[in-house]
Amino acid sequence: MTEAILILCCLIFLVSIMILKQVFDVNISLRTENAEIRKENISLRERNSEALKEIKKIKVEYEILPGCKVLLKNYGLTYKDENHDFKVDYEADVIEVSTDQVKLTAYGFTSRDSKANELKNRSGIISFLKNTWIDKRSVELILDKTHLRDTKIDQILQ
Asked: In angstroms, rounded to a whole number, what is the distance separating the alpha carbons of residues 133 and 92?
């Protein structure tokens, strides 16, 4: 009886050793996988940091500042005498900039509407957008050589 108990204890001990070995092997493989993931994480952080630097650089190049030229596309207007709705694409100078709006003064426009293109209406349509605050997301920056030169000079001076 004692021998049977001793043999049973030995078998249980051997089975537990085999289970511990399997757990140990799994632990080692998980540690190896963890080390690889850490290396990949470090690599991704470095790439992310480089991408953020590039985004900041691009943001500075394409930042809307006072004096920039912008397009305001499909701006809806109404001709009051005939209650005629039409859209124009304004070309404007930026006067002031806030966090989410820009103050614009138009210097030109284009339209497919015949009423808008009449010579007598031209000055009224342009003067409509004089010192007017518009949502920043509505305008598109016109990138000309002057703007790019100015941003590069600003980057050098900073």
From this structure: 12
Q: Where are the alpha helices (DSSP H) in 62-144?
A: 114-117, 119-128
- Take residue 135 and report the two structure tokens written for it: 């949502």
Q: Is 149 exposed, middle or buried (0-12, 13-18, 19+ CB in 10 A)?
A: exposed
* Residues 81, 79: Cα–Cα separation, whole Å: 6
Judge contact between 66 and 147, C-beta under 8 A: no
Task: For Cα atoms 25, 29, 31, give the angle at the middle one, nearest 5 degrees.
Answer: 115
Per-residue pLDDT of 69-83, as tens digits, reads 899 988 888 777 777
Output the pTM of the full model: 0.56
